[in-house]
Task: structure prediction
Amino acid sequence: MSFERRQLTDAHDLRALSHPLRVRIMELLAQEGPLTATAAGAELGTTASNCSFHLRLLARHGFVEEAEGGVGRQRPWRLVEQETRIRSKDLDQEGLSALRAIDELRWLRRRHQHSEWWRTRDEYPVEWRDAAAENFAVLHLTAAELAELNEAVHEVISRYVDRGLVSNRRPGTTPVDISTSTIPLRLPRPGGKHG
Result:
């Protein structure tokens, strides 16, 4: 399966990603691979018809697709293996509003996933506990340096994306969350004064 890089600019596509259940469905497909609406519903604590509706909507926007095998309610769905990038400078007001909803939802999901890790990490084998990491730093950077840092981090992550796709799943692997946030902590000071 080829890996697609997709720049999202359409507000309708962005709104498709701003629903909590759709995000959880996509996370589940990324972790488990193809699933039917029935299996997704059972895993997520909702009905098959509810999952089916959201899967069809995600398919219309190019985020999931039908997988081989099965028909009707037994039709499996899979995540379209693509890298999606969203740049606020490419969005209109409707797109920016959808992006804010996506960002809030991502933050809530990330917080939940990290809480689960902290709660259960002692259950993981020592090699996984040692390999996992969280990094925190406050750096004083220009906007150009921040953009450069983000691009460098993106390039490093991109080297692992193809091997980390569910279609390339290998023995000994497990889904891993890789999330980065590089955000200014306050507005720049006038006149370029050090802050």
Q: What stands out?
A: The domain at 4-192 is CATH 1.10.10.10 (Arc Repressor Mutant, subunit A). DSSP finds seven helices and five strands in the chain.
